[in-house]
Amino acid sequence: MNKVYPEHVYEKVRYEVAISYLQHEFRKLFLNTPADFWEILDKDIAGWTNSPELTTPRDFWNGFHGISMGFKLKIGLIYYITAENIAWRRIKIPISDLWFGVEFNETRKIKEGKLSLKEVNEFYNRKKNNNLKGEWLRVVKEASGRTLPRDQHPIIVVQKKHKEFLIYSIFDGNRRSAKALLEGNEKIDAYVGEYIEGTSIKNYWIPTTILMELILFSKQAYDRGNKEMFQKYMEILKDILLKSDSAKYELKERSLTGSGEFKSNVLKALGL
Asked: Is the terminal CB of the chain with fewer CB neighbours within 10 Å at N or C?
């Protein structure tokens, strides 16, 4: 394989995180698919990283973004999975180390805002709250039962800055984590992303669609003779290219097609 992108976007563990997410989500999207079909479907999804019908890694990461963002608005998930300074591993992580990534009606009964699972456990272990614990467990079990079994997939956890320190925040799998906590489990299977440098993500995959749409809008401004708006789009693209080496290649080789005055002016404005 001729690798034209940074090495880290090809890493096997990053693909594994994304594939696991897709396999999990598809069980919610294809509700009427027979159970015995899923072995084949899971195999097909895993094969998207090495498919003769796809350009890898471009099509895989763009497709992952389309599903994770398009269906569930998982904004930023692709950036964390592909960030060069985030290292991924699959582990059994203590539930007491986790923080919910979303608020539930049930957690708002404890307090508003960011909440650790340790705080939730302490709340529900008080005798006076036993009934509330049972009610929430029924809710999460009901949600689990709306599809074929899918709780075997690891949750996705990332380090995020909370106040002055880093926490293990659940990016995907809040319901699964709540269920595990309420059932008394001490650990849960997880893909965990941790910083190996800094505390903000760097050099991640920018979906090609974002670049193409910005080029489209800048072309419309250019054709109208709106130089000010064209320049604003160029400033946005400059900022994006600083965030991603992959985006530089994608812009030149995929997003900015053809030739002519517009293309020349874009390349000049971006210093490419």
From this structure: N
Which is nearest to 105 in space by CA: 181, 184, 175?
175
Residues 87-122 have pLDDT tens digits of: 999 999 999 999 999 999 888 989 888 999 999 999
Token pair 């909440």 is found at 115
- Domain boundary (37, 64, 85) is at 85
Residue ranges making up the domain that contains 217: 208-270
Q: Is the dihedral of CA 16, 22, 24, 27 positive or negative?
A: negative
Claim to verify: residue 173 and residue 264 sit in the same structural domain: no
Residues 6 or more apart in contact with residue 234 via CB below 8 angstroms: 218, 266, 269, 270
198 Ramachandran zone, left/alpha/beta (phi>0; psi -120 to 50)? left
Are β-strands 98-99 and 165-172 bridged in parallel, bridged antiparallel, or unpaired? parallel
- How many domains, in total, are found in the chain? 3
